[in-house]
Amino acid sequence: MSKEQFYLGIDMGGTHVKIAIVNSLCNIVEETVIDTDITAKPLDVIKTIISKASKLKNYSKVECIGVGIAGDVNCFDGSVRFSPNLPKWKNVALKQILEKLTKKKAFVDNDANTASIGAFWLDAKAKPVNLVCVTLGTGVGGGLIFNKKLYRGSSCTAGEIGHITVDPSGHKCKCGNKGCVETFVGAKYISKYAVEYLKTHKSPIIDKLVNGDHSKITPKVLSLAAAKGDKAAIAVWSYIGEKLGILFACIVNFVNPDAIVLCGGVSHAGKYLIEPAKREMKSRAFASAVKKCKIVISKYTNKLGVVGAAMLPKL
Amino acid sequence: MSKEQFYLGIDMGGTHVKIAIVNSLCNIVEETVIDTDITAKPLDVIKTIISKASKLKNYSKVECIGVGIAGDVNCFDGSVRFSPNLPKWKNVALKQILEKLTKKKAFVDNDANTASIGAFWLDAKAKPVNLVCVTLGTGVGGGLIFNKKLYRGSSCTAGEIGHITVDPSGHKCKCGNKGCVETFVGAKYISKYAVEYLKTHKSPIIDKLVNGDHSKITPKVLSLAAAKGDKAAIAVWSYIGEKLGILFACIVNFVNPDAIVLCGGVSHAGKYLIEPAKREMKSRAFASAVKKCKIVISKYTNKLGVVGAAMLPKL
Question: Residue B154 is nearest to which of A250, A258, A285, comparing CB atoms?
Answer without folding.
Answer: A258
